[in-house]
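lol so apparently i was supposed to do this last week
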Amino acid sequence: MRLKSVSKEFGGRAVLNGLDLEVPRGTNFVIMGHSGTGKSVTLKIMCGLLAPDAGEAWIDGVRIDGAASRDLRRTRERLGFVFQGAALIAWLSARDNVALPLRERGVAEPEVRRIVDERLREVGLADIGDKVPTEISGGMRKRVGFARATILRPALVLYDEPTTGLDPVTTRTIDDLIIDARDRLGATGVIVSHDIASALRVGDHIGMLHEGRLDIVLTPDEFVASSHPVVRSFLDAAPAAAGRRSP
Ligand SMILES: Nc1ncnc2c1ncn2[C@@H]1O[C@H](COP(=O)(O)OP(=O)(O)OP(=O)(O)O)[C@@H](O)[C@H]1O
Ligand SMILES: [Mg+2]
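anyway here it is w/ adenosine-5'-triphosphate bound
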């Protein structure tokens, strides 16, 4: 995934301002930054949901900003998006939510059932396939959203605050799924997170979105040792996080 000199403004106010980013294949990149700095906007530009005012977005050598719709569609099929609120369809069971991308692609029904049940098992939700979103917990909904976003084995997965509002144990489960997507599915991941402990666990690199750019890019080790004021403002607000890093 590559962004080149991306700029975006809303109502005359610049949100992204010449942002450059390169995420190597098969690695996880965490975007941190204060509220309203443009993290969600960045993810939307990465998947073609939002067009930049200037600059370019590339996935696997295919330019996706303003690309012809057929190319965009093909590239989007190789991309999963885990939305902040899970964004499940309320009247469909967990199983049918996860099955959506497969059915859209025309996969035969018995095959759909087999793949979906296997995936639900992998995310620890084998028993709740028949339940609708209101009948399961927030952490379960996030895992259903994750299962749906990765059901087509995408090459790139974008996660918008996948653990916000979850307890530490559930957070850990989601972190493990994000790591698993990288290690077992070989997916490249871009994760927006406010949770420093999660960022250190799942990220190969951590970038601070600041003044419309991602100029501060650090490994987890560099991040906890950094004296950069923008990084410090995050670490000092959650001093326990640095010590909570796990292997
Ligand atoms: N479609 C839109 N129309 C107008 N303004 C928008 C739109 N999308 C985002 N913005 C503005 O762009 C800025 C960045 O929004 P964004 O959602 O990317 O923030 P964020 O970094 O994800 O914040 P948070 O951590 O609160 O989710 C905000 O000021 C927001 O109001
Ligand atoms: Mg956001």
